Amino acid sequence: MRAFILMLATAAGTAGCTPSAPPGCPTCARARLANEWCDACKVGYVAGVPIQCKVVFECIDAHGHKLMLRTIECPSCKAAIAINGFCETCRIGWLDGLAYYSRLTYHLAKGKACDPATLGCAACRGNASRYGWCAACGVGMIGNVAIRDRKDFDDGCRGYDLMITAVEASRRCDVCGLAIMTDTSCFRCRKTYKDGKEVGS
Amino acid sequence: MNRRKRQAAAGITAVAVLLATTGLALGGAHTWRVNEMFTNSCGDIQFIELREINGGPGETGVNGHNVTSNSKSYTIPGPALTPPTGFKTLLFATPAFAALPGVPTPDYIFPAGSVPFFSAGGDTVKYIPYSTVTFGAGICPTNGILSLSGTLTTATNSPRNYAGATIVGGIDVSCSMSGDVNNDGAVNGDDIPGFIRVITAAPIAGDKIGCANYCGGTLAANIAAFVNDLLN
Lengths: 201, 232
What we know:
The complex is a heterodimer. By secondary structure, chain A is an alpha+beta fold.
């Protein structure tokens, strides 16, 4: 199923946002590089992965939030803000004073999005279909985002896997998708999730 | 290329440029929290207030998210909020609350079938998936004056909508004796004018709005109960 999703993502990148969308939707092309939402095609992109569920796309939080830092009360967050770190308690990553509400996008924010077709290295191009580290180039690709720090890459991969799980679930139930991203429960399906897995009902 | 074709080409190019430069970074919705919950003893007059707690100016994407209790759910409709959102509130309320004189217009009204939305006897109110408030029996006030905060403290209710409108002093739907609309300690004919004013949404100062509500669920039921009290 996951391979199918990735194939779909690749196909979407070359053939358009949706089966009915014109090929090469310019907004999608931009959104794919900027982790944004294409309102024409009703699809968002994170690391090049298409996400059709708006609330899940927003939850994954492709862009940092500019908040008033004086309102942050969590001691772990305060420490993370000082070092551009990740608060495991609140699961918020802090980078240059912006809050990223998912592990994935916090690490992606440290990378650089690109069009994989423009990469000179075949291994890197292949890695961009999901994620992978190229020892020759010293760079990891998480989707279409190149990350040079190995730890950021490894942590980001965890977030990528969680995102794929949430996106898959959101095709069935958007609340389950949210619950997977946030380790909470779906009130519709009566399911509880932890680290991407169902743990109770 | 003739003039019409050049104009068409220019138009298409302009649209293409516009589309290419108009990506949408959807607003977030992460920093809203359940801030206040109010209910009267009948459960027909309720409101839930969400508040943006971190001063985030772009937390506009609440539409599509759900506000839930243990028994009810409400999907926030409509378009994204108009920014800025920092420290603002969103007011969700029952139709009976919305009908009260002088109250701020709720941003969202629960459908009639979702009333009461939450149980005063203990419930969990959520803004999915970012905020959860759980309270047990005896925690949520029902006296028609006090409300319950997101941190489970009580205070005089203070509903405020997204535009910032509120009602000074909060609403008062308290009642020590059903039917005693003039609050003189007895239910008799002296209460009739006030009862009529309340049920026609035209109360005056001194009318105990809450005393015209017998928790009958309908106007006819409340009238019947009031008449029964007058006659007995």
